[in-house]
Design goal:
Helix 6 runs parallel beside helix 10, helix 7 crosses helix 10 and helix 9 packs antiparallel against helix 10. The strands form two sheets. A six-stranded mixed β-sheet has the order 6-7-8-3-9-10, sandwiched between helices. It has a four-stranded antiparallel β-sheet with strand order 2-1-4-5, with no helix packed on it. The protein is α/β, with parallel strands linked by helices.
Amino acid sequence: MTHTKTYSVTKHIPSAPLPKTAGAFLWHFTKRHGKAFGTITFLMMFWSANEALYPYFIKMFIDAIVNYTGEDTIPWDVLKTPFWAVVISFVVMEIAMRIMGIFMLYTLPKFRADMRMQVLQYVKGHSLSYFTSNFAGTIATRIHDIPRSADTLMENLLDHVFSIIMAFIFSSIILYFVSPLFTAMMIVWCVFHMGVTFYFMPELRQKSKTHANAVSRMQGDTVDCISNMTVVRLFAKGSQELKRLVRSQNNEIEKSIIAGWAYQKVNMLRGVGGIAFIVGVIFVLVKGYQENWVSVGDFPLVAMTIFTILSLIWHLSMNMQALFKDLGTISAGLALLNTPHEVNDLPEAKALSVTQGAIDIKDLQFSYRKTIPLFKDLSLSIKSGESVGLVGFSGSGKTTFVNLLLRFFEAQKGSIMIDGQEITHVTQDSLRSNIAMIPQDPSLFHRSLMDNIRYGKEGASDEDVIKASKLAHCHDFIKDLEDGYETLVGERGLKLSGGQRQRIAIARAILKNAPILVLDEATSALDSVTEKYIQESLQEIMKGRTTIVIAHRLSTLSSVDRIVVFDNGKILEQGSQEDLLRNKDSAFSQLWALQNEGFLPDKRA
C-alpha cells in the first residue's frame, strides 16, 4: 500500500526573497533538502568506485593466469580472489544504487513541489498590470519549466557529473600505480576536453536561454490563440492566426539551429582531442610493453580504464550541454522572480479589521504613465453603510478608483483609509477578504459550479451555497443541468452564457458576505425580468453594507444614497439622484440626457 503525505502550502511560503540567479536559486532549494541529497551523493560513490575497480579486477584475473606455472588446469585458489572481488564489489554497488533510487523517489518530487510552490507564491504577489501585460500561457510555462528543468539538472548532476568525476578520480589513482604517465595523459586530455566545454559555456548558456525564451513565446502565442478561438472564428481570422504562429515557430526553429550549431562546434573540437588521446595511449602501452614496464594484465586495465573514462567524460560533456539547456530554461523562467513586485505588504503590516466600513480617500494621486496623471489630489469620503454610485464616461476613472481601493495598483500619493486604517499598512489578503466585488465580466474557474460559488467562502456548506445561488437566481438553471452543481463550467466559464456567469459571480459575492460591496455593472448581462429579481436581492444584501456601484445604466442608481460624477479623473459633483437631476445644468443631468436606451455613450458627442 502506498502512503503519501499531504503537501503543506503555508509551511513552504518563503520567508525571504528567492535568489534571482539560476545557481543561487538551485543551491537555495538543495540546502532545504540537504540531508537527502547528501545521502544520495554518498551512495553514488559506490557506483564510481565499482567503475574504477572493475578493470583492475580483470587485470588480476589475467595476471593470475599469465603468471601461473603449475598444472594445465588453473586451480580455484588462483582465481578466487579476483572472482570474489568482482562479486562483492557488484553486490555492494547494486545495494547502494537501490537505496539511492528509493531516496531519489521521495526527494525529487518534494524538491519540485517546494520549488513550484515558492515560485507560484512569488508570482501570485505581482500586481494586476503584470498579468495583463504578460501571456498567461508564458507565465504558466515558465512556472512549469523551472521545477521540471531543476529536477532534470539535479539528476544530471548526481547521476552523471558527480559520479563521473569520482570515477575519474578513482581511476586516476589506480592508473598511477601502473604508471604516472598514463594518469598524466588522462588528466591532460580531460583538462583539454572540459576546458573547451567551459570556455564555450557562456555562449552555450546564452543561446540556450534565447532558445528557451523563443519556446515560451511560441507557447504563449499558441495559448493566446486557443483561448480566443471564439473571436478567431467570429472574424474568420484562422489563417492570420496560423501565420502568426508560423512566425513564432520559425523564430523558435531559428534560435534552435543557432544553439545547435554552437554545440556542434564544441563537439568537433572535443572529438579531435579524443582521437589524439586514444592514439597516444596505444603508443605508450606498446612502448611500455616493449620496455617491460607494462605487463600483459596492464593492457586490459589501461585500455578498459581509458576507454571507460573517455566514454564517461564525453557523456559528461554531452550532459553538460543538457545542463546548460536546463540552466538556460531556469534562467529564462527566473524572469518571473527578477520582475519586482509593484505592490508589497509592509513587514509590519497587520490584518484589516472592519467594524463599520467607512472609507476615506484624501489627496489621492495616481497615473498609469508618470507624465499623464489620472487622479490629482482626489478626495472622497464614504460613510459606513452608505451606498455610492460612480458614473462618468469610459476612462473617467471609475474602475481605477475601485482598483486602487482593492490595492491592485499603488497610488503615488495620498491615502485610502478604511475604518481609520491606511490600506498600505494592512495585508493585501485581509483588505480584499473584506471587499466583495461583482465584476462586469466575471471569470470562473474550470471547476464545478459548487466549487465556483464556494470560492467566496472556504468551507461553506452545500446548504449555504444553494442559499446564495437562490438569492442570485441561479439555482433554477443549475438544477436543470445534467450534473447540477457538479457541472464543470469550462475555461473561464465559457460553457455558461454571460448572464449565467454573472449570476454565479453574484452568488459567490453573496456567500462571501463581506462588509464592503463593489458592483461593477453587476446586472448588465441579465435580461430585464431576471435583473428585476436580482436587483431586489442586491438591495437586501446592500443593507448595512458600504456599497460602491459603478453604473453605465443610470436608472440602476435610483436607490443609492449618493451619486459621484467622475470626469477625466476629477469629481465634478455629487449628491442624490433627485438633487442632481433637479439642477438642469448639472453634469449628471447632461449625462442623463445623453444616455441612449438607459446606457451612457462611451464618450461625449
